[in-house]
Amino acid sequence: MCGTKQRKSRSPSTSSSASVVDSSGSGAVTKLVDENGVEENEEKLEFVWRNVIIMLYIHIAGTYGLYIWFSGQLLYTTIILGFFFGYVCSFGVTAGAHRLWAHKCYKAKLPLRILLAFMHTVACQNSIHEWCRDHRVHHKFTETNADPHNAKRGFFFAHVGWLLVKKHDDVKTKGKKVDMSDLEADPVVMFQKKFFLPLALVVAFWFPYYLTVVLGESPYKAWHMVVCRYMLTLNFTWLVNSAAHLWGPRPYDKNIHAVENKVVSSLAVGEGWHNYHHVFPWDYKAAELTTYNYNWATAFIDFFAKIGWAYDLKTVPERVVLQRVHRTGDGTHRLHNENVGVVHDDDNGVLCNNNEEVLNSWGWDDKDVSREERGITIILNQQAKSD
After folding, report:
1. How distant is the alpha carbon of residue 130 from its chain centre?
2. Average pLDDT over the chain, rounded to whole?
3. 2 in Cβ contact with 281 (< 8 Å)
4. First CA to last CA distance, the chain
């Protein structure tokens, strides 16, 4: 979303989470109704039992891993490796799949793309292609039945439940409208997609387990710590879909569900400043913050920008951010009441228009990103077209 235009949004208090109760005698049936009073097609949930069993095992074995960790039964090398691979996973998802590939917030040269693809494979959260497809659909159709992890269906569904059931038909049909041609033209993405399962089994599970055992840990404890690390990184990522859409202030746009959540940011290396992110999805910082406060993914990107591997970093001017705060924020921003949000001509001479509505976009290369939105965006470390 641009700071100079107000997008179509669904207010948390007045949106399609409204329900109608069928009292025909066959039992109460809750139906979702959109903001225009039109009933959404709410399908019956169908469990994917394979996924249910896998998730149960991950959380039972992972919880036991937590027990042996906190009861002091592990070697210090095992704990260090757990943190190391945990951060590898986190940066692969946040700086890689999320900000680079899903939103096109910046560009990366081939060595960095290979590194991020490897790190994302260690995270084992589906292939980059599938991860980005679901995430683009989430931004394009947020909080509707076409949103894979629609937070209006509750915390559990948005957190993990969506992975335990078949996708709603709207996710499939509307998802086909989201352009993925840019990722399909990236050989790194397509290589990882083609060989994802064997690669993930090796780098996400076998290699961390083998290395832990080589350093002296018992095989039993080593395996449960590998599963524990996997369980924690999954849940930290899922909190962005659940908690960061439910609990927290909305300083940039009070009309959308995404919120600012410091706890989520601290656990997900910077992905919890979610109200800002849904307003400006192509900002490489995914936050307004001028420091690395709970935003280590931004520090990661900045480091690789300094050595020339990351470039064309996109961000939004403070002036535009504050205009948006003043116009649509919920009043919790520290500068909300300052006289900084008065709408005026942008530097490029385009008059800000508060009343025009534009479609949600998933990121920089989305066709629904307007010329005005591109015009106000600052691009750092610009380079000529590279690999």
Report:
1. 13
2. 87
3. no
4. 28
- Long-range (24+ apart) CB contacts under 8 A made by 233-237 are 233/86, 233/89, 233/90, 233/93, 233/123, 234/58, 234/125, 235/159, 235/160, 236/90, 236/264, 236/267, 236/268, 237/93, 237/123, 237/125, 237/268, 237/271
DSSP designation for 44? P
Is-contact 252 324, C-beta < 8 A? yes
Rounded CA gap, 375 and 56, in Å?
48
Question: Are the C-beta atoms of residues 225 and 82 closer than 8 Å to each other?
Answer: yes
List C-alpha distances in Å: 282 to 43, 72, 122, 286, 359. 32, 43, 25, 8, 15
CA distances (Å), origin 24, targets 20, 21, 39: 12, 9, 17
Q: Is pTM, for the whole model, over 0.90?
A: no
Query: Left (φ > 0), alpha (ψ -120 to 50) or beta: where does 256 sit?
Result: beta
Q: How many C-beta atoms lie closer than 10 Å to residue 325's C-beta?
A: 27
Question: Rounded to whole angstroms, how far apart are CA atoms 126 and 238?
Answer: 13
- Distance separating alpha carbons of residues 361 and 140, to the nearest angstrom: 5
Which amino acid would we find at residue 371? R
- What does the alpha-carbon distance between residue 235 and residue 57 come to, in Å, rounded to a whole number? 14
What is the total residue count of the chain?
Answer: 387
Contact 270, 94 (CB under 8 A): yes
CB atoms inside a 10 Å sphere around CB 242 = 23
Q: What is the pLDDT of residues 169-215, one digit of tens each?
A: 999 999 898 999 999 999 999 999 999 999 999 999 999 999 999 99
Strand partners, 311: 107
Residue 222's identity, in one-letter code, is A
Sign of dihedral through CA atoms 172, 174, 177, 181?
negative
| % of the chain exceeding 90 in pLDDT | 74
Task: Write the DSSP symbol of residue 216.
Answer: T
Number of other CB atoms surrounding residue 165 within 10 Å: 16
In the chain, helix, strand, coil percent, each to 5?
Answer: 50, 5, 45
| Tokens describing residue 207 | 């290699």
